[in-house]
Amino acid sequence: MENKLCEDKVESKIQSKTIDSLGNIKKGAGKTSYLCDVCKKIFSQKSSLIRHKRIHTGDTPYRCDICDKSYTQKQALTTHKYIHTGEKPYHCNTCGKSFCQPDRLTAHKRIHTGEKPYHCDICGKSFSRQSDLTKHNRIHTGEKLYHCDICGNSFSQRHVLVTHKYIHTGEKPYHCDICGNSFSRSHRLTEHIRTHTGEKPYHCVTCGKSFSQNGDLTKHNRVHTGEKPYRCDICGESFTRKESLTTHNRIHTGEKPYHCDFCGKSFSYKVTLNRHKCFHTEK
Fold first, then answer.
1. What phi and psi, each to the nearest 5 degrees, are found at residue 244?
2. Is the pLDDT of residue 283 over 80?
3. What angle do CA 272, 273, 274 make, to 5 degrees?
4. What is the model's pLDDT at position 16?
5. pTM
6. Residues 6 or more apart whose Cβ sits within 8 Å of residue 60
7. For residue 207, with 0-12 CB atoms within 10 Å meaning exposed, 13-18 middle and 19 or more buried, which class applies?
8. Are 211 and 220 in contact (CB under 8 A)?
9. Which residue, among 8, 43, 6, has the nearest Cα to 23 in the 3D structure?
10. Are the beta carbons of 144 and 156 closer than 8 angstroms?
11. Which of 48-52, 220-224, 257-261 bottoms out in mean pLDDT, i.e. has the lowest?
12. What count of other Cβ atoms lies within 10 Å of the Cβ of residue 212?
């Protein structure tokens, strides 16, 4: 009796799911699922299967009439064209910022939510965007895909190579609208603009002091932690800041990089030079 029930159950499953001559799966009541013959993925609509198959064939029938770039799906072409038109139809409900592509809005929203769904399997660090995780992974693999054709140096990220090339060209494409100063890196311009605006977005959680640059906050925090990561190789003395170690090393090397314009005398420290100059100006 028990065996008969099992046989009926199996027979019932076979009857409710049949395969037609095209390889499509038919489920009971005339419902059909469409099977990809390459990867065996199943779709509920034939149009979805057709779009999916372009992944395997490489077919990109939707072409941009402005830049000639082509896509597998019509919607992807529509979204792409916003780059040319400047249209930004995707809006953040939290801050109102707009984007030309929906995936960029999705990534942006994680700034507000703090969501970081992409995790590094090696060190556990998390990221809000898949592309950021991909770039991060190169730290572990040592992969450097981007090569400088001038000096041969290699880099793990494309934007780092672009910035590096400014060393060779002398180009400084980031300009301050207030004073006209130019910079080879965008973050240097951002930091510089704060000298005009007075903005200090980096705050010490211990004493509340604020800084315009994150690096300055890092140095300041060592006042509270007592950390001295810069050690003199000659005498072993340690310092909280790298520049303090550089200045200290002149005791050992005898280097005197600061020269008096009046008499040519040299000094190890800038403050000593400034005090010396007072003798000339007082005369």
1. -65, -35
2. no
3. 90
4. 39
5. 0.44
6. 54, 70, 71, 72
7. exposed
8. yes
9. 43
10. yes
11. 48-52
12. 19
Instruction: Identify residue 147 by its one-letter amino acid code.
Output: H
Alpha-carbon gap, residue 241 to 222, rounded angstroms = 9
Q: What is the CA angle 190-192-195, rounded to 5?
A: 120
Tokens of 150: 């001038």
How far is Cα 248 from Cα 159, in angstroms, rounded to an integer? 36
Which phi and psi (to 5°) does residue 124 adopt?
85, 0
CA-based nearest residue to 191, from 212, 216, 177: 212
CB 133 within 8 A of CB 123: no
Question: Could you write out the three-class secondary structure of the chain?
Answer: CHHHHHHHHHHHHHHCEEECCCCCEEECCCEEEEECCCCCCEECCHHHHHHHHHHHHCCCCEECCCCCCEECCHHHHHHHHHHHHCCCCEECCCCCCEECCHHHHHHHHHHHHCCCCEECCCCCCEECCHHHHHHHHHHHHCCCCEECCCCCCEECCHHHHHHHHHHHHCCCCEECCCCCCEECCHHHHHHHHHHHHCCCCEECCCCCCEECCHHHHHHHHHHHHCCCCEECCCCCCEECCHHHHHHHHHHHHCCCCEECCCCCCEECCHHHHHHHHHHHHHC
State the CB neighbour count (10 A cutoff) for residue 67: 11
- Distance CA(159)–CA(104), nearest Å, equals 18
Does the pLDDT at position 275 exceed 50? yes
Q: Measuring CA to CA, which residue among 153, 131, 157 is closest to residue 143?
A: 157
21-35, 92-106, 154-168, 267-281: segment of lowest average pLDDT? 21-35
For 107-117, what is each residue's pLDDT tens digit? 899 989 989 99
pLDDT confidence band for 17 (50 / 70 / 90): very low
